[in-house]
Amino acid sequence: MREAQNDTVGAELPNTNYDVPSGVVLFGKYELKRLLGVGAFAKVYHATSVDTRQGVAVKAVSKSKVVNGGFAANVEREISIMRRLHHSNIVNLFEVLATKTKIYFVMEFAAGGELFHEVAGKGRLEEDAARFYFRQLISALKHCHSRGVFHRDLKLDNLLLDENGDLKVSDFGLSAVTGQIRSDGLLHTVCGTPAYVAPEILVKRGYDGAKVDLWSCGVVLFALTAGYLPFNDCNVTVLYRKIYRGQFRFPRWMSSDLRCLLSRLLDTNPETRITIHEIYQNTWFNAGENRYNPVRVKKTECVCAESQTGFSSLNAFDLISFSTGLDMSALFEDPNVSDSVERVVCAAEPENIIGRMEAVAEEGRVVVRREGNRGGAKLEGQDGNLIGIVEVYRLTEELVVVEMKRSEKGGECGAQFWKDKLRPLLLEFAGEREVPVSGDFCKI
Q1: Following DSSP, what letter does each residue of 191-244 receive, concatenated?
Q2: Which residues does the record give as ATP binding sites (predicted)?
């Protein structure tokens, strides 16, 4: 495990311009081809896998801009959210890599570009074509909501198309999860794109994340079939007034069934706004040559899969969560708290580590209580107080991460046991290969 030092292993992309330097290969795995877009603290590149030649999108995020701009929580949440979403109509996040100054998201590449350009090129879509995309959007949204994720920024710009013309929902940077819901059962962060924002967000009294997503879906569907947005004005105040009052007009070419559905989606009262369940029963939604068949959810490996030996395995997402370079739980921790956690990478079998730890603990009159067969153990002193918790995670076939969380109840006893007994034992296992996982690093 080491940080990248040169262009062929982990190139630091130049900040002077937006051109992609020829021959840049990130981490020896992804060859950059061209710039796709530039955001406030990130640039997105088209790249190809060196091994498979598969096209991917690489989002390079500047750590300094993220931290200084106060967006660290958004980036942390985006990665956390994309870990739990596996659907054929949602952009897949393959892995996360890092250097001292940048975080790289390696994602599924949507070769068809934004759905916005599809509409702009044709003016508007026929209802059958719009229904095709809308069905996929609702299927993706149902998957998100079932996993406690609310997108909160659904718009044509964030809906992409793959090489087969299928829709892909992207950009979860403003998404929320159920854990952010307050005691009143609502979300309160004001966010979203003006023309797509739901009226209840404007009054700043709290809102249901699922309901505001459905409002945005209504705006998307209207734009697909009308060729323009239902609420639009160069004056934001006037725009918000129209949204709050639900002032829009249907174009004459819209079918009556579509108008009925849009009226339910763009209902200014979230309590009576249509639900996803009701959408699946809707006449327009199920019209066409074939009734709608729900999209199957992708079956993928669990984020932290348990190996056959019972010890947990870490993937790229878990690796990055140990880094203090970006807040994947560690960057913004209170230093006084993070000092109570230490990690070491060892080239040893988990069972051997736990066994040796038990022997050392017995010599120091410390009780080791194993927790099932997951590679975890609690350490208790003679007085019965908890000294700490040790967890062993499988990193690769050869390496494991040993993490010890010291307890304040253990006092000097716990600190002394770690310093004089347990840590030397772990360093003995680690030998020349010790790596402090709490520092910045790139993927092995």
Answers
A1: -S-GGG--HHHHTTS-B-HHHHHHHHHHHHHHHHHHSS-SS--SSHHHHHHHHH
A2: 59
Contacts of 261-264 spanning 24+ positions with Cβ under 8 A: 261/221, 261/285, 262/218, 262/221, 262/222, 262/230
59 belongs to an annotated ligand binding site:
yes
Judge whether 327 counts as a catalytic residue.
Answer: no
Return the higher-pLDDT residue of 352 and 232. 232
pLDDT in tens, 219-257: 999 999 999 999 988 888 888 899 999 999 999 999 999
* CB 36, CB 44: distance < 8 Å: yes
Q: Would you say 198 and 242 are in contact if contact means Cβ atoms under 8 Å apart?
A: no
List CB contacts of 362: < 8 A, sequence separation 6 or more. Answer: 368
Q: Are 167 and 115 in contact (CB under 8 A)?
A: yes
Specify the pLDDT at position 337.
Answer: 37
Rg (CA), the chain: 26
Report residue 381 as tokens.
């002193």
Q: How far apart are the first and last CA of the chain?
A: 5
**Hey, what amino acid is at 438?**
S
The reported pLDDT for the residue numbered 83 is 78
What tokens appear for 108 in the block?
């599924």
Q: How far is CA 222 from CA 155, 191, 251, in A?
A: 11, 21, 10
Show the domains of the chain with their CATH numbers.
Answer: 7-108 (3.30.200.20), 113-280 (1.10.510.10), 316-433 (3.30.310.80)
Output the CA–CA distances (angstroms, integers) from residue 32 to 4, 12, 24, 55, 171, in the order listed: 16, 12, 6, 10, 21
Residue 92 buriedness (CB in 10 A; 0-12 / 13-18 / 19+):
middle
Q: What percent of the chain has pLDDT over 70?
A: 69
Q: Which tokens sit at 9?
A: 């292993």
Instruction: Read off the pLDDT band of 321 (50, 70, 90).
Output: very low
Spatial contact of 104 and 96, defined as CB atoms under 8 Å apart: yes
Please tell me which residue in 7, 19, 51, 153 is annotated as part of the active site: 153
Q: What is residue 369's predicted lDDT score, i.e. its pLDDT?
A: 82
* Phi, psi torsion values for 203, nearest 5 degrees: -80, -10
Higher pLDDT among residues 261 and 386, named by residue: 261
